[in-house]
Amino acid sequence: MGFAEHSILGPRPLVLHQSFVWKRAILGTLGVLAGVAVAIAYVGWQATHIQSLIHEQDVWTRGVPALQAEVGGEVTSHSFIFNDYELEIRYVTAPTATRPALTVHDVEFEFQTFIGGPDDPPPPPIVRHLSDDPTQFALSWAVQSTTSRWAGIAFMLIVGVLIGAGIVVLGVSSLKSLSTARAAAFRSDDVLLKVLHIDEIQANGKPTGALKYTYVPLPSPATVGGGPAITPIGSQTQGETTFAKGKYPLFADPDAGPTVGAILLGVRPASAPDQMLVLRDDLYPLTMPPRRAEEARQHLAKDAPAPAPVAQLDRSTDSQHSSR
To answer: Are residues 221 and 135 in the same domain?
Structure first.
């Protein structure tokens, strides 16, 4: 059976709602660019720490000790794992050819450690500085924490790359949904989907109002077999789709509401048979004249099998949320 022999939505190509196209394109592109920018920013941020750490080690090796050193400030601990040292250092350097008198230097200094740091309580601070440039200094507490500082840099690099990658994935997902919708609008199969169960999405243990529908394609005149190859169930396959709070898929019986056994309408692209576009109750992301939309709803109601007994909504916990 070909695509033109039986169609609930009518002949192809179908028309996508422009707001959907622009939203997915803009959010997807911005997501990819923002993710890459975040990763680069984290790398640049930690690069300055790497340069500072290497410079301090060089100063400590080549420098001379200050005559006196005092350190104040505070340490902020994050779950006793990541520690941020914000210090105020005063050190005194000996007279030089260009500075005939004792010189007092007051500086602010900050460094971070990961699982470790100076001894507790820390030993008396020692400051070493370059003889030809006393403003270039190194603090014993920071040098003593070199290993944990490198660990902190590595930790922050990993965090930054993961955050950036996560944002990129969201952007790619948005672009992928646009690609699927475009393919479905161009040439596709109308597929009747039977709801197997419905889960209410929760975040931090609280319901969000979003619903995740698990469905299975039905063998019907509207489909050319198969369906999305996600999780095999015998000779059929099942898929999932999530709708935000207050949004619902297009039901064959508009009075059925979100119930197990309800029939939905999906569109499977010919070029991507492993994908499924489940339509919203207003046919979004498709758009069509009101008369044609009403005809599509009538065809859907006619082609759908008799409704099964109504089952209770399965309000199980799901921490992921992707809305249409």
So the answer is: no
